[in-house]
Amino acid sequence: MSEERAGLLDGAIAPMLNTRLFGHREAEDFLARGYRSGKGHHAILIEGPEGIGKATLAFRFANHILRHPDPPTAPDTISDPDPEHMISRQIASGASHNLLHLSRPVDDKTGRVKSAITVDEVRRAGHFFSQTSGTGNWRIVIIDPADDLNRNAANAILKILEEPPKRAMFLVLSHAPGKLLPTIRSRCLPLRLDQLSPDAMDLALGQLGLAIPTEQREAVLALAKGSVARALKLVNYGGADILAAFDEMLAAQGPGQRRMMFKIADALSGKDSEVAFGFFTEHLGDHLADLARSLALSGDLHAAEHYARLTSTINEQLSIAAGYNLDRKQTILDVLASVTR
User: Fold this and answer.
1) Is 296 exposed, middle or buried (0-12, 13-18, 19+ CB in 10 A)?
2) What domain range is 292 assigned to?
3) Together in a domain, 110 and 174
4) Does residue 219 belong to any structural domain of this protein?
5) Among residues 134, 169, 192, which one ends one of the domains?
6) How many CB atoms neighbour CB 165 within 10 A?
7) Distance (Å, rounded) from C-alpha 177 to C-alpha 154?
């Protein structure tokens, strides 16, 4: 697997290869018009839930810029990339000298994707700009996502954003922009993408050929929350079964509840369970946050505070377990036990 394809979900199309985008025409037109005006911002923060097309939009816009390097003569709409065009082929193969894709790198020793975008990756951007300076071409950096920048990497990116080279464009992707450095956000033009509509989801999943059993389709689409990535995790990674087991665990008591806890722990600690584990921990965080919010709105502030604190405790448990490579099955059992108390 090449570094560009690392971390790609089963059944997904890599954003640099994807020629179609659904549900974000207004955002595309906004970018195209801004670019054509010659007054577009040098750094755009494309934000929104994971798996709704942020990276695909970034690569489409990069393709648009590189195919139309003179803004006033560029079209005011972004068309589907032509996979046979030289620029599209260069982008798809990662061989474009004018586009740099920064994402979590692969660890050469383990073959796994690292947990963060490091400062060494950001230094590639400095090298990229120094190599291409004086060419007069647009130089585009896609940070995918900026949420994964560690502290040193974020500070290094900030320095470049503060004094950007001429004809440089930064497309900064974020699932949770509130977690970014405020100074990075302040130097970017925000562009919010919403979750996909049911019609857009149908088109996107149809393009992927995702086979959802008829009897599960309605439930899967509801749980996907307008995210293609969530739909893939629900269907191709056992996410729907894991969430069903979690609901059953919450409703059960005694030995039955304990049995479901072990079932979930086994599913999330087995071989190649990284995606399912990440999906579940995200769902658990959303579940606890929704519960705390609901209790607060109903006036039970004491219970709401309990679940808010529990969320922080669980996040700390997971962070420590990951940092010290603790037994995942036992960690999951401990987390589930704290939720059911």
Assistant:
1) middle
2) 237-340
3) yes
4) no
5) 192
6) 13
7) 13
Query: Tokens 């010290």, residue?
Result: 324
Residue 187 amino acid letter: R
- Alpha carbon distances (Å) from 235 to 190, 258, 338: 32, 25, 28
What would the mean pLDDT of 193-218 be, rounded to a whole number?
Answer: 93
For residue 6, tell me if it sits in a domain. Answer: no
User: How many angstroms from the chain centroid is the CA of residue 320?
Assistant: 23
CA R_g for the chain: 22
C-alpha 240/C-alpha 245 separation (Å) is 9
Predicted TM-score (pTM) of this structure: 0.92
pLDDT tens per residue across span 142-200: 999 999 999 999 999 999 999 999 999 999 999 999 999 999 999 999 999 999 999 99
Residues 247 and 133 in one domain: no
Residue 6 has pLDDT above 60, yes or no: no
| 18 within a domain of the structure (yes/no) | no
Give yes or no: residues 77 and 181 share one domain.
yes
Please say if the pLDDT value at position 275 is more than 80.
Answer: yes
Q: How far is CA 192 from CA 29, 30, 59, 174, 189, in A?
A: 13, 11, 16, 10, 10
pLDDT of residue 3: 39
- Tens-digit pLDDT profile for residues 217-241: 899 999 999 999 999 999 999 999 9
How many domains does the chain divide into?
Answer: 2
> Are 122 and 187 in a shared domain?
yes
pLDDT at 287 over 60: yes
Would you say residue 299 lies in a domain?
yes
Same domain, 174 and 269: no
Same domain flag for 277 and 180: no
Q: Where are the alpha helices (DSSP H) in the chain?
A: 25-37, 54-67, 86-93, 119-132, 151-162, 182-186, 198-208, 214-224, 228-236, 239-251, 254-269, 274-297, 301-323, 328-340
Percentage of the chain lying above the pLDDT 90 cut: 88
Pair 198, 224: CB distance under 8 Å: no
